[in-house]
């Protein structure tokens, strides 16, 4: 048994676009314990409900995170719509689904790039981000923004996308598939990549359940958990089936996300085919009162929205529980017994979004 | 762009941003925008960096981190505040944990607006930063011989003086 040393990791670290700090207790080269400390980007935006009207709060909630910004906006809108018994037009639900799935593609491609960067495959990182620009172009074409686009509003969506443009989007995405396959095949079959991911950071099904892991982390460990299955939105009509794996290692988590990218493209194609004509928004009148709880499947997993109205223009409380928050205990579990050199890969494998976690 | 005669290296720190600007900073480095063709590289080490890109606003927890990164950078150095949060606090200005823009703790040379700041705007900000860097370098070159003649042995003072004078000019810190 070697001497114990504590190595600080972060908050400013080349592998992390965002600050998180880990104290890594190591023995020789093996991590025996990891102690995370967070709070570097805490803004306290939930408390802004006291200062911003419930209609303006959409813009704040969207800025919880710049990657799954649309999903957060949708989650908040759906929670307040639930509070006020607003029936959203079906075309708006379809458009929301399309933008949400586009966000998932963009988020997963971004993650695949960062993952490649974490195990030192710089050109793969570049290729993933090159493909991601296709999705950002679609966002820009349909909403005007690249990463934050404020297109979701209470009662529906702000902008319509005509059926011709939708068909164009689907054909753009289908064209992207060939390049996507070329890039993702490297993650799946390249031996040097497999050396870094196969059997690394195994999270068993029992541990995943015990520590409450969510999203692709849970699904890669064989836990069937996907909020899109619960009937919210139009996923049932699109024939959604969750992507699962059982290995629970970094390879499985990568493979789940890769298959989800392809699945999202198919979901968008199905949605573009089935989208009904009609209004894209209904007027929302009155002030919210009562309590409402809602769950959403974000690219990183289950997010939880709680809204409490007070009968005035200001909500009493808005609470968001984000997926990374749930996955950090699982990460600490994975880090125990890992090699020090694998720490960057393991930290990235949960797809950490610190600005979601700390809000 | 004829004045790009050096390869400036940048260091990026996420203050308390929502990620939107951070991923746009990263997008600048990737094939679509590819600032590496100008010799601009993202480094993780403050002592290698010429330009400090800060996204997001300042809070109690990160103000020391930002100050430390800034102090470790060799002068002349340029700070580019990316996005409205780094400029003034933006949409989060009223949050209890937000102190305000980056200029509350370190002097800022270039302000890049936007929520999220577009890659074109970020590149434009960095290019503006380069001319500030060139100015600071030439200011240092004109100051240095006089100072060196006045006090030969005290060479330590030479690199410090222009940096501080600049800080006071911008009304930061």
Summed up:
By secondary structure, chain A is of the alpha+beta class. Helices cover 47% and strands 14% of the residues of chain A.
Fold and architecture overview:
The complex is a heterodimer of chains A (359) and B (173). By secondary structure, chain A is of the alpha+beta class. Chain A folds into two domains: 42 residues, no CATH class; 303 residues, Cytochrome-c3 Hydrogenase, chain B. The mean pLDDT of chain A is 85. Chain B has a single domain, classed as Rossmann fold, CATH 3.40.50. Chain B is 40% helix and 15% strand. Chain B is built from five helices and seven strands. In chain B, helix 1 packs across helix 4 and helix 4 crosses helix 5. The chains are: A alpha+beta (359), B alpha/beta (173). Chains A and B meet through helix 4 of A and strand 1 and helix 1 of B.
Task: Kindly list the characteristics that best describe this protein.
heterodimer; A: 359 residues; alpha+beta; Cytochrome-c3 Hydrogenase, chain B; three-stranded antiparallel sheet; 12 helices; B: alpha/beta; Rossmann fold; five-stranded parallel sheet; two-stranded antiparallel sheet; 15% strand; globular; disordered C terminus
């Amino acid at each position: 048994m070697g001497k114990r040393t504590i190595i600080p990791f972060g908050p400013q670290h080349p592998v992390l676009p965002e600050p998180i700090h880990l104290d890594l207790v190591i023995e020789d080269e093996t991590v025996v314990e990891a102690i995370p400390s967070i709070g570097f980007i805490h803004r306290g935006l939930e408390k802004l409900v006291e200062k911003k009207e419930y209609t303006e709060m959409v813009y704040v909630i969207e800025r919880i995170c710049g990657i799954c910004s649309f999903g957060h906006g949708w989650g908040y809108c759906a929670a307040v719509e639930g509070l006020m018994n607003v029936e959203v037009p079906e075309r708006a639900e379809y458009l929301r689904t399309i933008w949400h799935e586009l966000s998932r593609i963009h988020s997963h491609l971004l993650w695949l790039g960062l993952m490649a960067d974490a195990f030192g495959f710089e050109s793969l990182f570049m290729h993933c981000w090159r493909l991601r620009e296709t999705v950002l172009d679609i966002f820009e074409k349909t909403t005007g923004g690249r990463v934050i686009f404020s297109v979701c509003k209470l009662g529906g969506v702000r902008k319509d996308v005509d059926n011709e443009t939708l068909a164009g989007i689907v054909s753009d995405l289908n064209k992207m598939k060939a390049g996507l396959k070329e890039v993702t095949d490297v993650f799946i079959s390249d031996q040097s990549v497999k050396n870094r991911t196969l059997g690394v950071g195994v999270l068993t099904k029992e541990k995943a359940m015990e520590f409450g892991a969510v999203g692709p982390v849970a699904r890669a460990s064989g836990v069937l958990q996907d909020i899109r299955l619960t009937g919210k939105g139009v996923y049932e009509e699109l024939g959604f089936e969750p992507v699962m794996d059982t290995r629970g290692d970094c390879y499985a988590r990568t493979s789940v996300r890769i298959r989800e990218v392809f699945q999202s493209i198919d979901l968008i194609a199905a949605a573009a085919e089935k989208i009904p004509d009609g209004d894209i928004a209904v007027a929302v009148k009155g002030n919210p009162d009562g309590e409402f709880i809602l769950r959403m499947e974000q690219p990183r997993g289950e997010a939880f929205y709680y809204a409490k109205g007070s009968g005035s223009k200001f909500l009493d409380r808005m609470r968001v529980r984000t997926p990374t928050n749930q996955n950090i205990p699982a990460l600490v579990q994975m880090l125990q017994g890992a090699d020090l050199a694998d720490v960057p890969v393991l930290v990235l494998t949960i797809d950490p979004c610190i600005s979601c976690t700390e809000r | 762009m004829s004045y790009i005669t050096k390869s400036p290296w940048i260091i990026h720190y996420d203050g308390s941003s929502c990620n939107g600007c951070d991923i746009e900073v990263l997008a600048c480095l990737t094939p679509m925008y590819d600032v590496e063709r100008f010799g601009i590289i993202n480094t993780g080490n403050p002592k290698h960096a010429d330009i400090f890109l800060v996204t997001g606003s300042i809070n109690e927890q990160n103000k020391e981190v930002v100050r430390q990164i800034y102090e470790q950078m060799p002068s002349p150095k340029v700070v580019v505040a990316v996005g409205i949060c780094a400029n003034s606090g933006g949409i989060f200005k009223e949050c209890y944990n937000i102190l305000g823009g980056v200029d509350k703790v370190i002097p800022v040379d270039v302000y890049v607006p936007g929520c999220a700041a577009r890659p074109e705007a970020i590149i434009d900000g960095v290019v503006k930063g380069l001319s500030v860097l060139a100015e600071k370098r030439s200011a240092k070159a004109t100051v240095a011989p006089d100072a060196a003649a006045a006090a030969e042995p005290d060479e330590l003072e030479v690199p410090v003086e222009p940096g501080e004078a600049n800080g006071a000019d911008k009304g930061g810190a």
